[in-house]
């Protein structure tokens, strides 16, 4: 039987085409994205600095990641053209703080607005009210805006640094907000301190957590989905670390091995606007689980040894990353040297010709911006988004990461929930 399922309550929407057996178990799954964005085409012919304004509009929830990818691409382009850009530790730290804020708020929204809501609905229960989560994500965005000026769609980063010059007052305000966020994660998300959470991961006792994340795991246990959702066992991180991991074997990742496959798109007679992103010709998973595993973080690595790349490990990795990022933001805020310059002007962009690449670890995985410019004008612009990695649509004999995770699940409704564990974003996908 073939069934078409419209997936909403994501960033955008997607269509899943399921083929099931007589019992309703999923035998095949295809993923379609039906809307074309065209941001790459919009950028061509423009001044290269326009990318700092237009690229953040790719997405309404991870636009800051696109800004940082775009500015890193421009700085790479300067470097390759023989005009190295100087970035002070202060400017670098401010970019890392704002980027981390975006990841934190994204993960909280995913937990409360998507996973708790959809898993509860599948159990026939009234979805929990998410007002507390919306409040705390607004606080995270305020923290980000102390330095970026606004969220979303900031353009405060530019080649050579950032446009803000914070004082101790902004840093104190940021630390106050961060304390509230940390308290929310411990009291509401986990229901315990972070050290006890790490112990639960190590001992595989996460189901006893009293917080909202514990509720989500118990929902998955009642649905018999905790150990479902296993995929290829291949993971990729291309941001600050560049590591590929396949079947527990780690290797240095090479951006030159990244390619796009358009064989499933409309232009080739397919049914989707999304191109597949491949590494060395294979589907790899990106995002929090990949980052935790390639960094060999203890708690997630312990879970992975027991459960593999199943739903419980993937869910926990995103929550664990919230905790990690809060600690990193605190360290960056407390070590800021405000006496350093925020911005060191580079050469005029109109004098620059060449190619550059910028890579960022965005909420859902590795984000790549590539461009070629001539005397400051964009000739070619290419974006490979995290959703392309995780939600690529391969043929039945070589399914993409999320496709494979859905195969074998006992019903379409449960397979759709597994699909959401990848933190789906369709508006980033089609350019």
Write the layout of secondary structure elements.
Elements: E1 2-10, E2 12-20, E3 26-32, H1 39-43, H2 51-54, H3 63-80, H4 89-122, H5 131-148, E4 157-158, E5 161-162, H6 168-190, H7 194-203, H8 212-222, E6 234-237, E7 243-246, E8 249-252, E9 258-261, E10 276-279, H9 288-294, H10 298-307, H11 311-334, E11 354-362, E12 365-374, E13 377-384, H12 386-390, H13 401-406, H14 412-420
Antiparallel strand pairs: 1-2, 2-3, 4-5, 6-7, 7-8, 9-10, 11-12, 12-13
Question: Your description of this structure?
Answer:
The protein contains 14 helices and 13 strands. It starts with a strand and ends in an 11-residue tail after the last helix. It is 43% helix and 18% strand. Helix 4 (89-122) crosses helix 8 (212-222). The model has no long low-confidence stretch (mean pLDDT 93). It has helices spanning 39-43, 51-54, 63-80, 89-122, 131-148, 168-190, 194-203, 212-222, 288-294, 298-307, 311-334, 386-390, 401-406, 412-420; strands at residues 2-10, 12-20, 26-32, 157-158, 161-162, 234-237, 243-246, 249-252, 258-261, 276-279, 354-362, 365-374, 377-384. The protein has a single domain, classed as Cytochrome-c3 Hydrogenase, chain B. The longest helix has 34 residues, at 89-122. With 431 residues, the chain is α+β, with helices and mostly antiparallel strands. Strands 1-2-3 form a 3-stranded antiparallel β-sheet. The chain has a 3-stranded antiparallel β-sheet with strand order 6-7-8, with helices on one face. Belongs to the [NiFe]/[NiFeSe] hydrogenase large subunit family. It is found in: Cell envelope. Fe cation binds at residue 428. Pfam families: NiFeSe_Hases (PF00374). Keywords: Iron, Magnesium, Metal-binding, Nickel, Oxidoreductase.
């Amino acid at each position: 039987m073939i069934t078409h399922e419209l997936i909403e309550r994501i960033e955008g929407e997607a269509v899943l085409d399921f083929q099931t057996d007589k019992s309703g178990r999923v035998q095949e799954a295809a993923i379609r994205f039906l809307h074309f964005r065209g941001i790459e085409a919009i950028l061509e012919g423009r001044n290269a600095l326009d990318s700092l304004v237009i690229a953040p509009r790719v997405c309404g929830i991870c636009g800051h990641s696109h800004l940082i990818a775009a500015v890193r691409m421009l700085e790479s382009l300067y470097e390759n053209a023989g005009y190295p850009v100087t970035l002070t530790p202060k400017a670098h730290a401010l970019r890392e703080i704002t980027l981390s804020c975006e990841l934190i708020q994204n993960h909280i929204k995913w937990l409360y607005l998507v996973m708790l809501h959809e898993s509860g609905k599948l159990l026939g229960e009234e979805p929990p009210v998410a007002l507390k989560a919306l409040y705390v994500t607004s606080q995270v965005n305020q923290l980000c805006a102390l330095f970026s000026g606004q969220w979303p769609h900031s353009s405060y980063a530019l080649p050579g640094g950032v446009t803000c010059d914070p004082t101790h007052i902004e840093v104190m305000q940021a630390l106050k907000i961060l304390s509230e966020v940390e308290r929310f994660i411990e009291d509401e998300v986990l229901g315990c301190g972070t050290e006890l959470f790490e112990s639960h991961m190590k001992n595989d006792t996460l189901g006893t957590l009293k917080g909202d994340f514990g509720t989500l795991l118990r929902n998955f246990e009642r649905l018999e989905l905790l150990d479902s959702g296993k995929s290829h066992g291949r993971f990729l991180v291309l941001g600050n670390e560049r590591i590929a991991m396949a079947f527990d074997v780690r290797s240095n990742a090479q951006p030159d091995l990244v390619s796009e496959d358009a064989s499933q798109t409309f232009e080739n007679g397919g049914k989707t606007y999304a191109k597949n992103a491949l590494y060395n010709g294979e589907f790899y998973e990106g995002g929090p689980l990949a980052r935790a595993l390639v960094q060999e973080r203890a708690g997630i690595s312990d879970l992975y040894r027991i459960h593999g790349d199943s739903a419980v490990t993937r869910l926990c990795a995103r929550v664990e990353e919230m905790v990690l990022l809060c600690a990193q933001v605190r360290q960056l805020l407390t070590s800021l040297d405000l006496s350093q310059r925020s911005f060191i002007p580079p050469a005029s962009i109109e004098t620059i010709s060449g190619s550059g690449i910028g890579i960022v670890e965005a909420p859902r995985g590795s984000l790549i911006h590539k461009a070629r410019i001539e005397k400051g004008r964009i000739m070619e612009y290419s974006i490979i988004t995290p959703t392309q990695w995780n939600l690529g649509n391969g043929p039945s004999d070589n399914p993409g990461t999320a496709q494979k995770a859905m195969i074998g699940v006992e019903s379409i409704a449960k397979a759709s929930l597994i699909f959401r564990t990848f933190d789906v974003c369709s508006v980033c996908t089609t350019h």
